[in-house]
Amino acid sequence: MVKDDCERADDPVLGQPKTQSVKEAATAAAWTVSEGTYNKKPLYARFNTAFRHAGDLADYPIQVGVAVPLHSPDKRGMPAPAELDELGEVEDLIVEKVAGQAVMVGAITANSMREFVLYTDKADWIEGFDHAMQAAVKGHRVQVMARTDPKWAVYSQFVN
Questions:
Q1: Backbone angles phi, psi at 118, to 5 degrees
Q2: Alpha carbon distance 124, 93 (integer Å)
Q3: What is the CATH number of domain 5-158?
Q4: Which long-range contacts (CB under 8 A, 24 or more apart) does 91-94 make?
Q5: ∠ Cα 130 59 26 (to 5°)
Q6: Domain spans in the chain, listed from the N-terminal domain onward
Q7: Torsions phi, psi of 51, nearest 5?
Q8: Which 3-state string (H, E, C) describes 107-143?
Q9: N-terminal to C-terminal alpha carbon distance within the chain
Q10: Residue of 157, 90, 152, 156 lying closest to 120 (CA atoms)
């Protein structure tokens, strides 16, 4: 059985996962990749499973999505190899711009789009973040949206 970093932090006495905070989970490298289908086309998802053990998820009730339409997806709706580096740069920029405001919990690639999934405790910074992303990302359109998701339903669809 493969154990992620969060499971290795189990309480040796009770055998229960150690409860950590969202901020602690954000620094854990417990990323997993899964695949499935959506609208009969492939879907790939990468999520940090460390958040499943965070005890303060409800303190981050706003889900922020940053959608990036692909330039030249293949017939399955997946990015071409040349575009992967560009998407990596967009991801790095998102992480940099949301530092201290939100946590990135995952990324979903499907249907000619990559969506980065984040959670935050307040919304007052999101409009400024949207403007900053529009100005900083030259090679792609970037769509920022936010919605209330206090139960982390988007995250829970991909991480048990």
A1: -130, 160
A2: 19
A3: 3.40.1310
A4: 91/116, 93/133, 93/136, 93/137, 94/66, 94/118, 94/133
A5: 70
A6: 5-158
A7: -70, -20
A8: EEEECCEEEEEEEECCCCCHHHHHHHHHHHCCCCCCE
A9: 16
A10: 152
The sign of the dihedral angle between the CA atoms of 145, 127, 114, 135 is positive
| Token pair listed for 7 | 């499971």
DSSP for residue 71: S
* Tokens at 77, concatenated: 């709706």
What totals of helices (H) and strands (E) does the chain contain, helices first?
Answer: 5, 6
pLDDT in tens, the chain (160 residues): 333 344 434 434 334 455 789 999 999 879 999 999 998 999 999 999 999 989 999 999 999 999 999 999 999 999 999 899 999 999 999 999 999 999 999 999 999 999 999 999 999 999 999 999 999 998 899 999 999 999 999 999 999 8
CA distance linking residue 131 with residue 120, whole number of Å:
18
Two tokens, residue 60: 């981050």
